[in-house]
Amino acid sequence: LWILPSRIAAIAGSLLGAIALAIAAVGLYGVMAYSIAQRGREIAIRIALGATRQNVRTLLLTDGGSMMASGLLAGAIGAVVLMKAIRSVLPGALDADPLALAAALTVLTLTAATACYLPVRTASELNPLKVLRRE
Amino acid sequence: MFESFTVYRMPSPMDPTPARVLVADDQPDVLEALRWLLSGEGYQPQFVSSTDAIMERLRDETFDLLLMDLNYSRDTTSGREGLELIPRVRAHDPSLPIVVMTGWGSIDTAVEAMRRGAKSFVQKPWEDVTLLEILEREIADARAARRRDQRQQRELEDARLIQRGLLPTALPQVPGITVAVAWQPAYGVGGDCFDTLAFGRALGVSIADIAGKGLPAALLMSNLQAAVRAFAQESSPPSAVCANVNRLLCRNMASGRFATFCYTRIEPDARRIVYSNAGHNPPLLVRADGTTALLSDGGMVLGIFPDNNYEQSEKSIGPGDRLVCYTDGITESRNPAGDEYGEDRLMDVALRFRGDGIEAMKDALMADVNQFTGGKFDEELDRGARVVVISHELWMRDFAGTPDVLGRQTTINGHRFEVIGVGPERFMGTEPLDPDFWVPLSAQPLVNPESDLLLSADADWLLVVGRLAPGARARTAQDALSTVVAHAAGAPLHRRRGVAVVPGTFFHAGSELRPVIVLALTIVGLVLVIACANIANLVLTRVAVRQRELAIRVALGASTWRLARPLLAESLILAAAGGIAGLLLSAWTLRVLYPIGIAMLPFRWARVVLDVTPDVRVLLFTAGVSVLAGLMFGLAPLLHSSKQAVAAGLRDQAAVFGLNVRGPRIRCALVIVQISVCVMLLATAALAVRSLQRTRSFDVAFSAAGVVDTSAELVRHGYSQASAAEFYRRLTARLRAMPRVRDVAKTTHVPLTGGVRREPLLPEGHDAAAPISSTFTAVSPGYFRTLGIAFVAGRDFTEEEATAGAPVAIISVALARRFWPAGEAIGRRVAVDDARLSLTIVGVVRDAADASIWREKGISLYVAAAAGADRNLRLIVRTDGDPRALAQMIRAEAISIDPHLRFEAVRSRKFWACGSCHRGSRRSLARCSAQSLWRLPPSASTA
After folding, report:
1. Nearest to residue B443, comparing CAs of B410, B405, B416?
2. Which of B282, B280, B277 is CA-nearest to residue B260?
3. Which residues of B are less than 8 Å from A91 in CB distance?
4. pTM of this structure
């Protein structure tokens, strides 16, 4: 019985974490893809006016990145609070652990970056003429 | 009715008294018919017509038989009323035979009645011949049983008188020796006896204790007494007396029985006593100058090995010296709190009164014991009905599921119990303990003589389970019960706070689990938040696509409600579909996950069956959440779109830069929420994984691989302390001789198995105000080797220290550093238990885990286990081979020593050895080595 709580916590936590990660990744991708699609006209005009693909990418990634950064920051604070709460409830759990937090942040950054980058790349490669003509 | 005359036989000539039969039926014509029949047949029938009247009549008079109908006016078909009465009648008078009358074709009811204790049944309409036959048989049986009981009582009484007569009545006269004797009988007859033999100028004193109680012990006692008188001649040395008596007893004794015995010859002329002690409580020699000695030399208990040799020893004596011989009836008598009188108290009294006359000393000793036990001198209470309800599993396992198990006698820890019921299948009682049987609370001291909970002032062990009346509130019940408890006579002050009424649940979730559950729900809630954010995003996206359309429709004059309707309908359909899919999915995942979850439970919970199928509440919750989600997501875009001016909607679309500002901002917020919650969840998961890793790699500083841990609660099984020690001695010897066994050791506590004893401890010379709490474990030599706990300094206990119970201790490094940072702990002394014990430190070992890995390991103190001094010794055995096979062999060896022992199946447990990493080698984690547990459960066996 001594190990049981932490084993269950580990399994359940990992499971829920994975589910959450998947949902969040899909959501992030969806939002980025949609907002970029919405801004298709704007991007097309920017490109037509001489913006390089790099410019476009930077513009879009800055938007996504700021979102990501604020999310990660809020998440880090929340995580510390949550881990403290666990510590007080489950005997034997580790105290708020920087390593665990770092791991979570890394995984999320990678996932979020991928979810952002894919639509951005698509956007930066679009043909302005086609877009503008469709309007 | 005429035919009945032709077959009727006179009641058995042995019983000339007419049988008194109580007949209960609510139909007057039935009573009338029975009155005719029974009176005509020579019975003395009495008639009642209601259940209450039955009990009333039974209280007032005695009957030979109760013939009762099961159906009464209240409920005319099921017979419930009559069935419920049966146990009450049996509780009132277990020997009264009950014959039930049931309606035609209701054989199930009859079976149920028999299960509850009815002896027989007749079906209505009855045939006179059959009914009379049944009555005659049952009355004869019951009368015979009652006679048997009375005879047994008489026999027991006779045996007691005879036993008393065997003890010396006149005290011998030997010049220079005065003798005083006290013999106080326990309940029934026992096996304690003494004898004194005068040999001119010397005196022989024998004292013995036959294992067990009752008639067999009394018979053996007279045998032993006669043997001693035959062998103890003036010239015979005590060792020869022991050897001869032993040889004789071995021939006469049934296996599994034995006796402890001590023979002492006092020779005042030679100023010495010569003695030989065969496993008896060592007689106490109190010298006039205040020094004491224990007469413990000799050999093994009598009656097991015919060829035993016994040593004899001498002690010098002088004028005024006292020899106190006693049995465990003195040292093992208990006070109401459950403490033993013990040898220390005996020695105290003996020392205090050594200056007084021998009679005064004896009286003081007996008075002290009586005072200690609260007036109940070794009282073996005979309380409680000796009845037992066995579990369905035990019924199948040990009784092969036979229906006639009811009424059978079985033996539980040496006491005979009658089986009166079988529990429902898979019923485990109110705690996940998986019991084999249930006995009445009042029979608890019989099953577990070590601790008579009924004498304990502390009622913590008692869990009262009740069912609230319909409509009653827990709060009301709690107040009412608290009042009762607070006014209970003799309740200790701290117990008067009241009673907590909590919902009855298997897991007593109340205080401990609640935060865990709240936490788990929080985490699940966070996942829900992420999912919601996602859906909100999707919905917003969908709306955004239709924004232009909506704007145009608003512009064309569509009302808000008209716009809302399709949106709402759509959302609700989506939400409902999602909810249903979720339910189906959860039903499936639960089916898949349930066995996995159950497999992770500790083995004693393995039979717990949890109902995880979603019930109405779950359905309602899901439906509620789905509808709410549908409404929210359906209405949100509506607010969004209706608030926006039509023009704004149209303009937005036309705008080139600075798109729909509002939409993205909400979506941004949603994305941020998703990311942050996700970080929280992942961090938690990572933390949990890391915690588990730590548990696995936790350095418990002992190695459990290949170790089998066993405990035999022999005292519960009717062993005396001495015989339990002897059992262990023989078992240990046999185990040591086995191939592949590397070490055998004894201990009072095996690491990581919970509850360890703690004692306040104070190094001598340190401030008395600050004792430190330390674990206190008695171990045998070789304990540290067996568990692979390394010595840092000093040495292990020696065999001599262990047998003598020498005041030496081994402490852990943490404790040593605490008080002697420079490492000079060896040879220092520590006072334990309020300075009652003063121990010299002989060794320092590594800090090993104690009760559980969650507690900081460290401060530990080990003392040398005197053989058998502690009742709850556990045997730990280390093997090179397969621990499971070893466990089986231990079992076989133990059974070969005492065939009456029963063992649980050997089970392996995974948790124990999870951290067997030792001396830094984290690689060699033996994640599951079989720890086997055999114990002697107080389980029933057919007698």
Report:
1. B416
2. B280
3. 854
4. 0.44
